[in-house]
Amino acid sequence: MSVIAYSAARATLRSSGALLNRNWIAMRRAWVLIVSGAVESLLFLFAFGFGVGSLVGDLTLPDGSTVSYTAYVAPAILANAAMMGVLAETSINVFAKFKWMKVYDGILNTPLRPWDVALGEVWWALIRGGTYIGAFVVIMGLFGLLDSWWSLLAVPACVFIALAFAGIGLTLATLFREWTDFDWMNAVVFAMFLFGGTFTPVEAYPAFVQPVVYVMPLYHGIELVRGLSLGQPSPWMLLHIAYLLALCVVGMWVAQKRLSKALYK
Amino acid sequence: MPIHNEILARAVDLRKSYGEHEAVRGVDFEILRGEAFGFLGANGAGKSTTMRMIGCVSQPTSGSLEVFGRDPRTEGAAIRARLGVVPQDNTLDGMLTVFENLVVYAGYFGIKKKDAREKAAELLDFVQLTPRAKDQVSELSGGMQRRLAIARSLINDPDLVILDEPTTGLDPQARHLVWERLFQLKQRGVSILLTTHYMDEAEQLCDRLVVMDEGRIIAAGSPRELIDTHVTKEVVELRFGPAHTTELAELSLTLTGVGAQIESLPDKILVYTDDADDTNAALDARDIRPTSMLARRATLEDVFLRLTGRALVEDET
């Protein structure tokens, strides 16, 4: 039994790895696109962190401690970068491959299953998101925005954000019918970026808004990354991680179901 | 001709429905190793749906289907690992070059990179695309894309190659290049399964074929057997100037007895006969003078016409 499980796991790894290889070969000529994604996050850091930060100065957190506004905003922008890189890859790029370039139509005649395709796309998104995360964390360090050893955990924390949005992006890619559907996705993403706790503690919002914020995946990501990068671990982080992982698993499951339904007519 | 009697695929009362529409209505067939097996039929006859079920990308609604002795419902991935598929629309990867298309596809079958590169080079040579190895797929003509799709289908040394309408939409020269490659595959003993609505394609390539119409198999056998069983040896085509559908139908009534069977079409009348000279003599005797008269051997096209009362490739007018 364990032999079968082992070989099944290995086949899944090999199959999703084959799709990863495909994406790497297809995208290695378009590396400029990938770099441009990292630059965007840097611009946010400069504009909000250093720009607005110089006006705001220090911020007193609900627990009474004080941090510079730049140190407060930077982890949120990092969380945002982790989200954006992965979401672009899994939603728009997968949609293009699925419905427009019909890449998966060719793949479905091979031993690869929809689950392998979903997994391969998640690996790939994690790699792309990971490059943004890594680059951004290095820059945060260079600007002295990482205050404790806990902050190194911000990197794996971002991986949970990336996983969650990989699942969400895949689901959206399989649900969307037209390019215009991405407009409302962008609207939701922008709303999360503005109100998910990026710029102010959620406690500052009116009470009736707060539950909405708690549903936002980005909020949980920001709380997780910020807590770690400010060196303030808390048991609540386990809840954030659980929420993000659940989104990943559900998202991937829905996506592979949708892929099967669309391709295996 | 089949070398062994090993059965690669077997269907019994195989059916597929899409909602109310029954695309395949209970078909039975056996495909043997080493043979070229064809599904001949008009568009919408259920050929592609049957191919998709054999290719394990479509679940049968009912009936039994075995491919390589396995059940496509539960062992699809294992079956697909041994198949080579050339879909109607090629489904090449537009983001990759010609060579990358083959190497990446090999990866889906778990073929190691080094082996994949060797095999890809060999297959590009086989389909005469080596000079285009570094081009993007979109730069290739339709015929070249089809040849690349054929090369891709061979990357895993499949036990069975499935081609869905391999030459539809290609110009005559490109068709002949594709046929040439398929002939070579046949000679190498590769088992081939193809669908087509071109009778010349079926006649040239297939050892055995089934004729499908409206989701059912209406005849089966070798091209020669089908012709011998369902039509006479020769056919005389008669045209009467501008005379059209109704006039021809009326005219055909006066022809009774000049051949074994008379078939009236929109633009001509077909007389099925065992001897064209006898038919000519009979027409002369009745003083019937068509504007043109063509005697030819009966083909699969005639078989299809006899069986369904319709032409295989309908005129697009």
From TrEMBL, chain A:
Main localization of the protein described in the UniProt heading: membrane
Pfam families with a match to the protein in the record: ABC2_membrane
Every ABC transmembrane type-2 domain range: 32-262
GO terms under cellular component: ATP-binding cassette (ABC) transporter complex
Compartments it resides in: Cell membrane; Membrane
Family: Belongs to the ABC-2 integral membrane protein family.
Gene Ontology MF term list: ABC-type transporter activity
PANTHER family noted in UniProt: NODULATION PROTEIN J
This protein's name: Transport permease protein
Listed GO biological process terms: response to antibiotic
Organism: Glycomyces harbinensis
Segments passing through the bilayer: 30-52, 72-96, 117-143, 149-176, 188-208, 236-255
Membrane topology per record: Multi-pass membrane protein
Domain of life the protein comes from: Bacteria
Swiss-Prot/TrEMBL keywords: Antibiotic resistance, Cell membrane, Membrane, Transmembrane, Transmembrane helix, Transport
TrEMBL record, chain B:
Chief subcellular location: membrane
One example of a Gene Ontology biological process annotation: response to antibiotic
Record domain ABC transporter: where: 9-239
InterPro entries recorded: AAA+_ATPase, ABC_transporter-like_ATP-bd, ABC_transporter-like_CS, ABC_transporter_ATP-binding, P-loop_NTPase
Stretches assigned to coiled coil: none
Record GO terms (molecular function): ATP binding; ATP hydrolysis activity
Annotated Gene Ontology cellular component terms: plasma membrane
Record bears the keyword Hydrolase: no
Lipid bilayer topology: Peripheral membrane protein
Compartment(s) where it occurs, according to its Swiss-Prot or TrEMBL record: Cell membrane
Keyword entries, A-Z: Antibiotic resistance, ATP-binding, Cell membrane, Membrane, Nucleotide-binding, Translocase, Transport
Record family assignment: Belongs to the ABC transporter superfamily.
Protein name: Lipooligosaccharide transport system ATP-binding protein
Annotated organism of origin: Glycomyces harbinensis
